[in-house]
Amino acid sequence: MASLCIGVLLQYSSIDAHAEDDMVVIPKGHYTPLFKSDDGVKTIAVESFYIDKYPVTNSQFHAFTKQHTKWDKAAIKPVFSDSNYLKHFSDDVMGDIAAQPVTNVSWFAAKAYCRSVNKRLPTTSEWEYVAKASQNLADGSKEPEYKQQILEWYSRPNTVTLPNVHETQANYWQVYGMHGVVWELVSDFNTALVTGESRGDTQLDKQLFCGAGAASSVDPGDYAAFMRYAMRSSYSAHYTIESLGFRCASDVKEIR
Amino acid sequence: MNMNMNIIKIIAILLLQYCACLSVAAAELPDESIYYIESDWINHNNENVNITSLQGKVQVVAFVYTYCEHSCPIILAKLKYIENNISPEDKDKVNFLLISLDPERDTPAILNDYMKEKELNEEHWQMFNGDPDDVLELAALFGVRYKPMNNTEKDIAHSNMISILDKAGRIHYQMKGLDASLEQVVVEISKTAQK
Fold it and tell me: Could you tell me which of B191, B155, B161 has the C-alpha nearest to residue B179?
């Protein structure tokens, strides 16, 4: 009995640690993916999980590269990143950019960062599930003006200076800066299947993809989601982009 | 006593050589080598294999799942064609590696059955089961995309690609799509096997 109690306590304390660690718990729910399959499955169940309140900042990422030198700007292997990796880090002094979201990082580097703090990248379903919340509602799609607000950001050119993560807008879940700051990496970006040659076409190339026929039929309702989908499907894991950052997530362990 | 000393000396020399080999291999890994990921896998014989141990041989790599009824049998047929057309002197320098996209269903035992059923010779063929996260990462390195489908067969849509890794783990050549030339793949394997 004593050991059981200790076990439960330990698990509670690790969850508390996450809560203090600027993460919030997202209750389980459903996410409706942009692309539907032929069998009519329209929603994907999303289990409860933790997600960072804020995107990872330059200073957090900088500290990581000093501790895990494999990911240092000078040491990173080209197989894990293109040559623009952390190009905005001019020296070890962060200055004004310290609290801004880190960008110019590859998927491999983002994944390694999350792993180093015992977290992981969120899945597409998890990210989209959190992203559909507006300021006041868990499902922002019920607010027409919310979609409009997001679209305005997607149609705006990249701003030169990124805001500090704490100064961005919080949504219903108290997760900050999901829209309007940077694009964000997800763990399973390479499960977004659109071939380079057929971006205007919702039919996948059957030559290139086994089971491609099952992936057609698009729901064109959410244009911003379509842009994110297109971004993911054209992304390669070693690419770095000036406007692409990330935040981490972690599982909620069942404790009862 | 003397003999004992000699044995100890021989063992020491062998050990030193072994260590030297290991460190040279690590030091000489080129920047573009995928073996920097260092992930651990379980093969069709239920043995732990670190991916870095694949160096030294040319690896012909494809991502598959064993119950795939559409393009995977075609990929396998193409790989066998390639195997049968490699020159005899290259054969021992080349290994075929199939990585499962569905580690949950493709257990090592199922991979083993698949190898037997498809008559894949263990000397030249290997199948990998791994952590889903490592599968995703390795697929990302090869530029392979895949997506589990919601259809009744639980298919996995995936890129049809055959990749050739050189002995140091650099991607030497990739055949994309099912109509690409197999002769070219054989030529490329031979080129990199000779190096």
Answer: B161
